[in-house]
Structure formats: C-alpha cells, structure tokens
C-alpha cells in the first residue's frame, strides 16, 4: 500500500475513533482508557508512516510505448503479417456506411 493511501486510511480511523470516544463519554473508565490507547496507537502509526522515506520507483523494462496496449484487430493484423512474412501490415480500407454511400450517388 502506498504511504499516502495508508495515511488517509489511518486519519479516517482516527476520526472514527474520535467520534466513538465522544459519543461514549459516559462509558466506564476502563473502556475510555482502551479507546484512548487505540487512538494514541493510530496517531503514532500515522506519524511513523508519514516519516518513512518514499521509495523511488524504477521504470519497468520493456515499456517502450508508455504502457499502451495494442487493440485486438491491430494485434491480429500484425500476427498474420508476421506469419506471412510481411514486415509491416497494411490497415484495411475504411468502409463508408451505406447511408452516406447512397446519398453521394
């Protein structure tokens, strides 16, 4: 989990625990002590995660096209072209819709 996401979740838990403590103000002293200890633990965990260094992410090898995937028809064209020995597959011609072809005639 990334540090920013962990901090957000810990802050959310801290806020929730704070509302529980406020609503149970009339609770027994033992329960109140346990809730305050839990809140202190969450606060210390938040500080520890915030203080931890963020690791640098190295670029992944083989991602020369910036992570773009080939569309299935393009992939199938390139596979058949490689099988037939063609270096670069040609795109199929675009088909015009029947309605526009009839209106131009």
The assembly state of the depicted protein chains is single chain
State the helicity in percent bands: 55-70%
Low-confidence stretches: none
Structural class: mainly alpha
What number is the mean pLDDT?
77
- Please outline the major beta sheet: none
Spatial shape:
elongated
Total count of helical runs of at least 4 residues: 4
Radius of gyration: 30 Å
Percent of residues in β-strands: under 5%
Characterization of this structure:
The protein is mostly helical and 105 residues long. The protein has a domain of 49 residues. 61% of the residues lie in helices and 0% in strands. The protein contains four helices and no strands. Helix 1 runs antiparallel to helix 2. The model has no long low-confidence stretch (mean pLDDT 77).
Index terms:
about 100 residues; mainly alpha; about 0% strand
Question: How do you describe this structure in short?
Answer:
With 105 residues, this protein is mainly alpha-helical. 61% of the residues lie in helices and 0% in strands.
């Amino acid at each position: 989990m990334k540090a920013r996401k962990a901090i957000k979740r810990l802050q959310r838990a801290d806020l929730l625990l704070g509302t529980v403590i406020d609503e149970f103000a009339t609770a027994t002293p033992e329960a109140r002590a346990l809730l305050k200890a839990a809140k202190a633990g969450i606060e210390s965990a938040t500080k520890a995660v915030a203080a931890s260094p963020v690791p640098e992410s190295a670029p992944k090898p083989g991602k020369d096209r910036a992570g773009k995937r080939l569309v299935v028809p393009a992939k199938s064209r390139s596979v058949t072209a490689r099988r037939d020995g063609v270096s670069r597959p040609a795109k199929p011609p675009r088909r015009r819709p029947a309605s526009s072809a009839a209106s131009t005639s």
